[in-house]
Amino acid sequence: MEQHNLQPRFKDSPHFTDFWTKGNGKQLTEFSGAELNFKDFEKFSHFYYHVDEIGDEVVKDIYLTKKYTEASREIEQYIRNGVSENDEVPQSVKKMFVQTQEIPNWLDYDLIKSGAELCMRSNLDSLISLRDYCLIGGYDYAYLNKPLIATEALKKGAVKRLSETLDFWVNVTRYDALEIHKKGYEFAIKTRLIHSYARLSIKKHYKKWDTENWGEPINSWDMMATYVGFSLVFLHSLYKLGNTFSEKEEKGLFHLWKYVGYLLGIPENLLPDNKKQATEYFYLWTSIQPPSDKDSVLLAHSLLNESLENPILKFEFQRKNLRYLHICCTWFLLGENVCKRLKIPDVPFKSGFPMTKRIINKIYDSTVGREARIKKGNKDQMKVLKDYLNITQNSNFH
User: Fold this and answer.
1) In whole angstroms, what is the distance from residue 27 CA to residue 22 CA?
2) Which of the residues 12, 135, 185, 215 has an alpha carbon 20 to 30 A from that of 165?
3) Between the CA atoms of 337, 339, 342 and 346, what dihedral angle is there, to the nearest 10 degrees?
4) How many CB atoms are closer than 10 A to CB 33?
């Protein structure tokens, strides 16, 4: 593989320094107690050019040798029935399933349960956090988005993209979902292979790919940053919206995503155990990312306008109102600089809805029992997912 000498090239840029001295980066540092420096930069930077080679080999052996539906059925059989050393299957399949079927010695299912419960009991705040902080905030990192642009995600549309993200997130954050052969485990393996399929496709067809600057497509370091989004950024968003959580729930959230990352083939030493570690890892990664570009703005606006395109709500005024509420949350969660870079529309009374939400959450947390909140949160999240799947699986919806 070609050698690249990566440096923290944007560490003196205004977008980087503003984020870490004034914006959400400063808040994350205070929230986590992180110690920020570049002494470990070289320990992580080579992962920008590192990929999940095991997943890639499985795709070459299974998906690229037969029809897609046939290949998918075969993989589903392996996921649901398991693969042993004695099975007559391609070596790559054996290698991947031996890794994913082996329970790491650090895995604690009780902690995963606590993390899943936090995701469920935060109810619709979880979905607001995923959409208006984690997803749209990720669009501010121009190079991170390049695989989405290369695979023409914009043509697919934000409703479909959101539906897929929601389907994955909900299915890996339910009770016992990540046990071997269960639904969350299945989603993790399939997502891993989708990443490999996309990566091989980009390398074959997208001639403009700039490896020096963008890293390998869907590289391990970018994957780490994405999963810091699901753990650290998600947790910070819940906190900003006035949710409370126990030390065990917080630890459980990081543990859950560490295991999902492990199943996805992200190297273990890239997967943080807690918010302090996650913030320090994230700091290093952000130093190689330029600010939003025109692709970032297109992706952000595609997501903002999803509320208008989505037929879940029957009337146009409802859709416009939902878009307004998401814009309010985006300004509240991401802050002024990021919103201006992404050209998020400025709207009147934009802090009203999020501040009201904070007050309601404080009251709700202190008056409604934890078990009742978990049960209601699970029910409400499953209802949103069902609505999205009903729409995106309808052949008339484009």
Assistant:
1) 8
2) 215
3) -130
4) 10
Q: Where are the domains of the chain?
A: 14-51+108-174+202-392
Query: Whole-prediction pTM value?
Result: 0.95
369 φ, ψ (degrees, to nearest 5):
-65, 150
Cα gap 186→265, rounded to integer Å: 14
The owner of tokens 């109102």 is 321
The predicted-structure confidence for 43-98, as pLDDT tens digits, reads as follows 999 999 999 999 999 999 999 999 999 999 999 999 999 999 889 999 999 999 99
Q: Which alpha helices (DSSP H) does 153-205 contain, by range?
A: 153-156, 158-172, 183-205
Distance (Å, rounded) from C-alpha 331 to C-alpha 337? Answer: 9
The amino acid that residue 42 corresponds to is E
Tens digit of each residue's pLDDT (9 = 90 or more) over 329-345 = 999 999 999 999 999 99
Q: Is the dihedral of CA 129, 135, 136, 137 positive or negative?
A: positive
Through-space distance between the first and last CA atoms of the chain, rounded to whole angstroms: 40
Amino acid at the residue 265: G
Q: For residue 97, which of 86, 109, 112, 110 has the smallest C-alpha distance?
A: 86
Nearest C-alpha neighbor of 281 from the set 219, 221, 217, 216: 221
Q: By the 8 A CB rule, do 353 and 325 touch?
A: yes
